[in-house]
Design goal:
The complex is a heterodimer.
Chain A (H helix, E strand, L loop, with lengths): L8 E5 L7 H9 L3 E5 L2 H4 L4 E4 L5 H10 L3 H9 L4 E4 L1 H4 L4 E2 L12 E5 L8 E6 L1 E2 L14 E6 L1 E5 L8 E6 L3 E8 L2 E4 L7 H17 L1
Chain B lengths: L4 E9 L2 E4 L7 E4 L1 H10 L5 E5 L6 H13 L6 E4 L5 H9 L4 E4 L1 H5 L2 H10 L4 E9 L10 E5 L4 E6 H11 L3 E6 L11 H8 L6 E4 L5 H9 L5 E4 L1 H4 L5 H10 L14
Parallel strand pairs in B: 1-4, 1-12, 4-5, 5-6, 6-7, 7-10, 10-11, 11-12
Antiparallel strand pairs in B: 1-2, 2-3, 7-8, 8-9
Helix pairs in contact in B: 1-2, 8-10
The chains are: A alpha/beta, B alpha/beta.
């Protein structure tokens, strides 16, 4: 079943950072019309902009720069248009990354740091996402429901200025921020596109939230 | 708290799932995306595809199978077998895999692990180690020897030494298979698992020998495994994902609730 012409349009930024198939498929299952954007022009004024990604910050930033995508992403968020960052797509929103010293987008106050003190690292598998406040993206999803994680670094919002961003956290040794939001910006450390039923519900909520905005 | 994972492994040859004791007596078990969908629905936490196609034309077929699977089962997928370069890994990830398993090629070219990790991050690089028991000696101090080429060719490399090296090079996860136990149903080699899991910070997936749900418990409790993998017993429906998780939960290990999974 293909979504109708009134379905929300979603641009997924394609900068060579891994698996886009699952993200496209999950968004499509959620009722969106999805296209990939390798350049600023290809973003093409969607209803929702998704920045996915796994891996290290420096090569990802290089690729975003090569595609001329840094400014469009910054402008998009500055205009408070609907945005979803997944995994590295959340981490890149902060000022910089300890992983390789990369300077990142600087949209959110804070840094990407190693999840030190974790019993195993990388943090791979299903873990509980515990909400600190309500958000339409988690509508109908049980408190503490499990989502799939695969990462060794986490976005750490700056104290005080960044505390208001924290939407949910997760424990793996220390607690870390597993979802952050500000206005219509949403970022998650887990992979909703790989999180089975809960993940599809989350994606459907985000798409519906976008359409309602 | 992080859940322990149950992972069905699908051996794929020429685009079909096959079963048999590693590479012999292969029998067609169906279409990979269909089986993947069934496992996702039954509560599998992740899937591993192992490409055992030796023929070069198997590559394109595998990518197609990976993509069709990624479009139907919304759980993570690791693909192993035949990845020889960063470009191979890129292709497999772009087809819809979340992680890539490196085995024989990584033993021959350990820097491949570093190159893949630098490009895609450690979390996407699983080093698969097939090992067998030998008499401990100077060259093989742990008494576990690495075997390559699908478990057929022993090499002069200690499995624990290789595990430590692989992690140092950037492996984000280790898939440890006991060749002695694989296909025998005599339980995991928990000594092998413990010898490795106790010395690395990365998650260890236990493989080879599972027959009953309590074997999974032993792999975690005695072997220190973070995840457990099996093939035949799941394909033949001798043990369900739910039964494996029930045993793990009863032993005090956190698992993801088995629920009716939605697939596209």
């Amino acid at each position: 079943m293909s979504p109708g012409a009134s379905a929300p349009r979603v641009a997924v930024v394609d900068y060579g950072a891994g698996n886009l198939v699952s993200i496209e498929q999950a968004l499509t299952a959620a009722g969106a019309r999805v296209h990939r954007a390798q350049t600023a022009a290809e973003i093409a004024d969607p209803d929702l902009l998704v920045v996915p990604g796994v891996g290290a910050a420096a090569p990802a930033m290089d690729r975003l720069r090569e595609g001329g995508l840094v400014k469009p992403i910054r402008d998009w968020v500055a205009a408070d248009r609907p945005f979803l960052g997944i995994c590295l797509g959340l981490q890149l929103l902060f000022d910089g990354s300890d992983e390789d010293g990369a300077e990142t987008l600087g949209i959110l106050p804070g840094r990407t740091v190693r999840l030190d003190g974790a019993p195993t690292l990388p943090h791979i598998g299903w873990n509980q996402v515990e909400r600190r406040r309500d958000h339409p993206a988690f509508s109908g999803i049980a408190p503490g429901a499990e989502f799939y994680f695969v990462h060794a670094y986490v976005g750490a919002p700056a104290h005080e200025t960044g505390d208001a961003l924290i939407l949910a956290d997760t424990e793996h040794g220390p607690r870390f921020v597993s979802a952050a939001s500000r206005g219509r910006l949403l970022g998650v450390q887990f992979h909703p596109e790989r999180s089975g039923r809960n993940g599809l519900r989350f994606m459907a909520n985000v798409v519906a939230w976008t359409g309602a905005a | 708290m992080l859940c322990r994972r149950v992972i069905p492994c699908l051996d794929v040859a020429d685009g079909r799932v096959v079963k048999g004791t590693r590479f012999v007596d292969l029998r067609d078990e169906g279409d990979p995306p269909e089986l993947a969908e069934r496992y996702a629905r039954e509560g599998a936490d992740e899937l591993v595809f192992l490409d055992i196609t030796a023929a070069p034309q198997g590559r394109g077929t595998l990518l197609d199978v990976v993509e069709r699977t990624a479009r139907r089962a919304f759980i993570p997928l690791t693909v192993g077998g035949g990845v020889r370069s960063v470009e191979d890994m890129r292709d497999v990830l772009r087809a819809g895999a979340d992680k890539v398993g490196l085995n024989t090629r990584a033993v021959a070219d350990p820097e491949l692990v570093s190159r893949c990790a630098a490009r895609f991050g450690s979390q996407a690089v699983v080093v698969a180690i097939d090992a067998r028991r030998v008499r401990p000696g100077d060259a093989l101090p742990s008494g576990f020897q690495v075997v390559v080429n699908g478990g057929r060719e022993p090499v002069a490399l200690d499995a624990v030494v290789w595990a430590l090296r692989a992690v140092e090079l950037g492996a984000g996860e280790l898939l440890v298979t006991s060749i002695d136990r694989d296909g025998t149903g005599s339980g995991f080699d928990t000594d092998l698992l413990r010898a490795i899991s106790s010395r690395v910070p990365v998650p260890v997936i236990a493989s080879g020998g599972a027959a009953v749900p309590d074997d999974f418990v032993a792999a975690i409790r005695d072997g220190g495994a973070d995840a457990v993998l099996a093939a035949g017993i799941f394909h033949r429906r001798e043990v369900s994902i739910a039964a494996a998780k029930t045993a793990m939960a009863a032993a005090g290990f956190r698992v993801r609730a088995v629920d009716t999974e939605v697939v596209a």
